[in-house]
Amino acid sequence: MLDITQVSEKRIIEFQEIRLTQSRTHSRATVNSEVRTLMTILRWAKRKDMLHEVPVIEPIPELPRVVDIPTPEEIGLLISKLRDSAKTVVWFLAETGCRSGEAFNLTWDCVDEVNGWIEIKAKDGWTPKTALSQRQIPIGGALLEKLRSMPKAGKYVFRPRMTLTSHGIMFAKPWMELANEQDWYAMVNHSKLPHIL
User: Fold this and answer.
1) Which residues pair with 138 in a beta bridge?
2) Is the pTM of this model over 0.85?
């Protein structure tokens, strides 16, 4: 077992180099994350008087990721390929900025169709991502009219809790078909559009 007092700046730099050359799957961001975890452990060891000092390590510079973002017109084309029920979900997500979990857990009792509000709040079996995620969001115009016209057949506004596989297929397939038609494969593949939900 490694003696924690032997973890030096030199050894950590060697670790960074080995991890970067060991496999193509180890990105700079991954290695930086691993070193941050190690530094947290070393700082804990120093507080417990198990270590005299914590090495100072510079993170590996990370290259900015270039992502092709579709134009509003291209988004319109993508959405046009979806079936009607999916179009409404995408429209709702785009206009409100909600997360997919917030949309698929939205119940009709959290929709104020008169005053034009939706409320994101915790409920049985589901909580928003953070405490600050609980909020009211104004909606209006055509989106509000669309929600008013939707059937109130069940508890949920949108199809209740589809699995990741089922709603991934619902959105990814038409988008990839359109990407092939428009020669947008790289944009759709690298922008993670099929996985935004």
Assistant:
1) 117
2) no
pLDDT at residue number 160: 56
Burial class (CB in 10 A: 0-12, 13-18, 19+), 53: exposed
**What is d(CA 6, CA 85) in angstroms, rounded to the nearest whole number?**
60
State the Rg of the chain over Cα. Answer: 24
Give the pLDDT confidence score for residue 47 in this predicted structure. 93
CA–CA distances in Å: residue 127 to residues 3, 111, 120: 43, 17, 9
Burial 104-123 (b: 16+ CB within 10 A, else e): bbbbeebbeeeebebebbee
Q: What is the DSSP letter of 123?
A: B
Q: What is the reported pLDDT for 23?
A: 65
Residues of the chain with pLDDT under 70: 1-2, 23-25, 67-68, 160-197
Which value, to the nearest 10 degrees, does the dihedral of the CA atoms of residues 22, 25, 30, 32 take? 40
Indicate if 26 and 123 belong to the same structural domain.
no
Pair (78, 58) in one structural domain = no
Judgement on whether residues 143 and 106 belong to the same structural domain of the protein: yes
Q: What is d(CA 56, CA 86) in angstroms, rounded to the nearest whole number? A: 50
Q: How far apart are CA 100 and CA 90, in angstroms?
A: 9
Domain end marker among 44, 65, 86? 65
pLDDT of residue 173: 62
Q: Give Cα 40 to chain centroid, integer Å.
A: 25
Domain that holds residue 2: 1-65
